[in-house]
Design brief:
Number of helices: 9
Order of helices and strands: HHEEHEEEEEHHHEEEHEHEEHEEEEEEE
Radius of gyration: 23 Å
Helix content: 25-40%
Strand content: 15-25%
Number of strands: 20
Oligomer: single chain
Structural class: alpha+beta
Strand order of the largest sheet: 2-1-5-4-3-6-7
């Protein structure tokens, strides 16, 4: 292929999967090398590949809310940390400077190969030996985002019921964690000193660095084999291809304005009313405009979400619809965002002023944005869009000290629930849905790592909404703690179940409860409390909505 000047269908397909394989292998490395159950068992991380100007080129099939928002981190790294040198690694978690919430720590690494057409033959020789004039603009970036189970803050697990971002953990603006191959030990130690579980953070950050090393190596192999010119030519063609496919999909949505409003239960603070998220979709030919005017103002609690999260949810929804409309696989790169424009009112829930709390915006508000966008799309595509899924990640964090050793521990997980039914099938049961794409933590791994016993882990019967197609059922997860712990739960759909569509019924709302001996106390959707040894926390997750009227 070294003499190829115009991409063909075959060569585009080859490069598409070559680029995606870089991100996939980064993810395999990160998952295998990580220390924490949240990363190595639940796979709560994402990896992606970007061009040197920050445009997303490829991603692995990881977490939608990570991947759609990660371009903001790369752009922040470019704006605040250039010029770059080989061996640099930028770290960031600040939601107001490219992150999404503090536990998601993003690393970004520039990758250099020299200027296109400036060298021939083995380009890997130029990976780290370029002269200074060539160090300003990398050829590529590799990036990873991993949810760290604790980054400090006011409660173990760093998902507190916060009212300002300073309560949520250590805030890291875009800075160089590694400069020209030398790790900044002062920054490294500063991070570890501000978390409850420094050994875990040390191991998980090292795993991210290992993933980046693999990404750089695999990119070098691609450039060695095909040349930098070929790689960049096909990168541009792939972005244009995704743009064309996405525009084709949008053009199949009937022109018009479609409005839908959905509600978050509350913001976790006293006397909080339901929180509206309103979306208006305007389809005009191959262009889609998404307007969130009418959404609530920023709230006192932690459900605020930065704009990148809203943009990520919109891109995810459109991609889901586009895959069905064009009936072919759609590359996920910068081109897939091209037909979309988004309006987010400043000062709203989706664009809060600093220092508003944002810990749950990434996990809970992102799910409700998805529900609202799909609700609007269902008016345009009634025979395509499914009913609402559980609409929450059922976030659970807890922390305490191990029996005997007194060593501190902190844990975070999300829990699956019911998926919404669609026109052709029932909704899946006990699944992570939409903006969450993690696995569950196996019972054996959970009990091995922490002083607890899982008393029940089962489907929640009849929690899915009835209909021609029935919504999927939620889960029941009951945990008996064997040592005192501080627990925080941030969950949604506890007051209003996931909506049904086309005559289908709503799914059952979720429920949280505390069992102490013979007493059973219902808990709110969002709470922090201290539990004693032998207390049982029971979480029942929501079912999905039904689709179509039930027979009889």
């Amino acid at each position: 292929m070294n003499n190829l000047t115009k991409p063909t269908a075959a060569s585009l397909s080859i490069f598409r999967y070559l680029f995606a394989s870089v991100a996939e292998e980064m993810g395999v490395t990160l998952g295998r090398a990580a220390y924490s159950p949240n990363i190595k068992e639940r796979l709560d991380f994402s990896c992606a590949l970007f061009l040197g100007d920050g445009r997303m080129l490829a991603q692995a099939a990881h977490i939608p809310v990570h991947l759609g928002a990660m371009p903001a981190s790369v752009q922040a790294a470019i704006e605040q940390c250039a010029p770059f040198a080989p061996g640099d690694v930028i770290i960031v978690n600040d939601p107001y400077q490219g992150g999404n919430h503090l536990p998601d720590i993003t690393l970004v690494s520039p990758v250099f190969f020299g200027e296109p057409s400036s060298v021939n033959g083995d380009q890997s020789d130029n990976l780290v030996t370029l002269s200074p004039p060539h160090l300003v603009t990398p050829s590529f970036f590799v990036a990873s985002r991993a949810h760290h189970a604790d980054v400090g803050g006011m409660s173990p697990g760093s998902m507190p019921l916060s009212t300002e971002i300073y309560q949520e953990g250590i805030i890291i603006p875009p800075i160089k964690l590694v400069a020209a191959g030398e790790r900044n030990e002062a920054v490294w130690q500063l991070i570890l000193r501000n978390v409850r579980t420094p050994d875990e953070r040390n191991g998980d950050l090292a795993a991210q660095l290992a993933a980046h090393a693999i990404g750089e190596k695999r990119l070098a192999e691609i450039v060695d084999r095909y040349s930098l010119d070929e790689a960049l030519t096909h990168a541009e063609a792939l972005i244009e291809y995704a743009k064309t496919l996405t525009k084709t999909a949008v053009s199949q949505i009937p022109n018009g304005r479609y409005t839908f409003t959905d509600f978050l239960d509350d913001d976790g603070q006293p006397d909080s009313p339901p929180i509206p998220i309103k979306v208006t979709l305007t389809v005009n030919g191959s262009q889609l405009h998404v307007d969130f005017t009418g959404t609530a103002a920023a709230v006192r609690g932690n459900l605020n979400a930065v704009p990148a999260i809203a943009q990520s949810a919109v891109a995810y929804c459109l991609r889901c619809a586009a895959l069905a409309l064009v009936q072919t696989d759609l590359p996920m790169n910068e081109g897939a965002f091209a037909p979309i424009s988004v309006t987010i009112p400043p000062g709203s829930l989706l664009d809060p002023p600093q220092p508003h709390a944002v810990a749950a915006g990434n996990v809970e508000t992102s799910q409700r944005i998805t529900d609202a966008v799909f609700g609007a799309l269902a008016q345009a595509l009634p025979q395509l869009i499914p009913a609402a899924s559980q609409g929450t990640m059922n976030n659970l964090t807890f922390g305490g000290k191990h029996l005997g050793s007194g060593r501190p521990f902190a844990y975070y997980e999300t829990i699956g629930g019911g998926a919404g039914a669609g026109p052709e099938a029932d909704g899946g049961s006990g699944m992570h849905v939409h903006m969450s794409n993690t696995l569950n933590t196996p019972v054996e791994a959970l009990e091995y790592s922490f002083p607890l016993r899982l008393e029940q882990y089962s489907l929640r019967p009849h929690s899915g909404g009835a209909g021609q197609q029935r919504g999927g059922d939620g889960l029941i997860r009951s945990i008996r703690f064997l040592t005192p712990v501080t627990v925080t739960v941030t969950s949604e759909r506890r007051k209003q179940g996931a909506y049904g569509l086309q005559g289908g019924e709503n799914g059952r709302p979720g429920r949280n409860s505390l069992i102490q001996g013979e007493s059973n106390t219902e808990l709110p959707g969002k709470f922090t409390c201290r539990l004693d040894a032998d207390d049982i926390l029971k979480i029942e997750t929501p079912g999905g909505g039904g689709w179509g009227p039930a027979e009889g």
